[in-house]
Amino acid sequence: MRSVYLACLLTASLATSKALPSLKPHEARGAPAGYGTLTTVTNGSIIRATINNPPVNLWDYKLAADFSTFIGTLAKTANTSDVKVVILSSAIPDFFIDHIDIHAVSAASPELPPANSTLTGVQLLETEQYLQTLPIIFIAEIDGRTTGAGNEVAVQCDIRYAGPGAKLSQLEVGFGELPGTGGLQFLVSLIGRARALEYILSARSVDAIEAAAIGWVNRAFSSEMVLKTEVTALAERIATFPKQGLAAIKSRVNVQKPTEGDIKGDNSLFTELEKTTVVQQSQDRYLVLSANESANVFEKGIPEDIPEVLI
Fold first, then answer.
1. Is the pLDDT of residue 53 over 50?
2. Which of 174, 192, 269, 296 gets the highest tally of CB atoms within 10 A of its CB?
3. Please, is 80 exposed, middle or buried when counting C-beta atoms within 10 Å of its C-beta (0-12, 13-18, 19+)?
4. What are residue 139's DSSP bridge partners?
5. Residue 23: is its pLDDT beyond 60?
6. CA angle in degrees (0–180, nearest 5) for 296-279-170
7. pLDDT, tens digit, for every residue of 171-205?
8. How far lies 208's CA from each of 49, 100, 106, 160, in Å?
C-alpha cells in the first residue's frame, strides 16, 4: 500500500510573507531522540499500547515513528503471532491523540532535523491502513481530546469506547482544509452524510454521550475507571475466541469500509489546499495562539477556538 500513498503525502510549501515570532519545532523541547512515546504491556493475546507524548500527544515525528515501529512489527507477525486485540490508550490527561504537528505542514516554520515531514505523513497513512486491515482488533480507549489526525486514527480503529473526558472533532475547516487521511470518509460511514457534514463543516466537538448517541463511538462511560474496566473486559471477551474467526469477520465487515481510492482522493485534495496562502497563514497563527502547540487555554479549547486563526 505504500506506493499508493507516496504521490499524495502531507507536504509543506509556499512560504508566506507574514512575519512570525521565532517558534522552534518540538525537537527544541529536549525530547529524547528515538522512541519512547508509545509503551506496551502484553497480557496473553492482548496488548495495551499507551500513548505518552507530552504535552498534548501531538502526532509529530516521534509519535509517528513509534506507531510505525509498533504497528509494523504487528504486521510482520500478524498471521503467526498470538496477538488478537490491541487497546490504544493515553497517559496524558485531557488528550487521547491530538492533531498533526503544524510544523510538519508549515512552510514558514518547518520541522527541524531529525524530523522528516514527508515521513511523518507516510507513517500516519500507513498506520491507519494497518489499523483497518490487520487481522487484529484495535480498540480505542478515548478519555481526552482527539482532533484532526488524532480523530482520523480513532475512527479507523475497529471499536471506540469513550470516557467522560472524551472530546472528538475534526478541526481542519478552520484552516481552509479537509481531513486528509481517511477521517472524513470513515466518519461519514459511522454517522452518516448529514451528520458528518454538520460536525466537519462547523468544527464542533462532541462529548462521549453525544458521540455514542450518533455512532461516533460505540459506548460512553461515566468514569475513567469504568471505561478502562469495560475496555479490558471487552478485549478479554474477544480474545477468548479463535483468531481465524476474528480475522474473517473483520475482513468481511471491511467490505463496507471506505475504499483506498476514496482516501487517496481526500489526501490529494488536502495536499493541494495545503499550498494555499490561507492555509499556511492560518496554521502559522495557530502556532502563535497555541504557544507552539502547548497545553495552553487555546489548545485545550480546540476546536471551538479554531475560528480565531482566521482573525
1. yes
2. 174
3. exposed
4. 87, 159
5. no
6. 60
7. 999 999 999 999 999 999 999 999 999 999 999 99
8. 21, 22, 32, 10
* Cis peptide leading into residue 242 (ω within 30°): no
Q: Cα dist. 81→71, 88, 206 in Å? A: 13, 19, 37
Stated pTM of the model: 0.89
Instruction: Check: CB of residue 188 under 8 Å from CB of residue 266.
Output: no
Instruction: Find the length of the chain.
Output: 311
Secondary structure of residue 242 in the 3-state scheme: coil
Report the alpha-carbon distance of residue 208 to residue 185 in Å, rounded: 21
Calpha distance 83→64 (Å, rounded): 22
Q: Cβ contacts of residue 224 below 8 Å, gap of 6+?
A: 143, 163, 164, 165
C-alpha cell at 248: 474473517
Task: Copy the grid coordinates of residue 27.
Answer: 525537537
Q: Summarize pLDDT for 232-270 with one digit per residue, the tens.
A: 999 999 999 999 999 999 999 999 999 999 999 999 999
83 SS3 class:
coil
The per-residue DSSP string of 59-79 comes to B-HHHHHHHHHHHHHHHHHTT
Confirm if 269 and 10 have CB atoms less than 8 A apart: no
Cell numbers 507516496 label which residue? 6
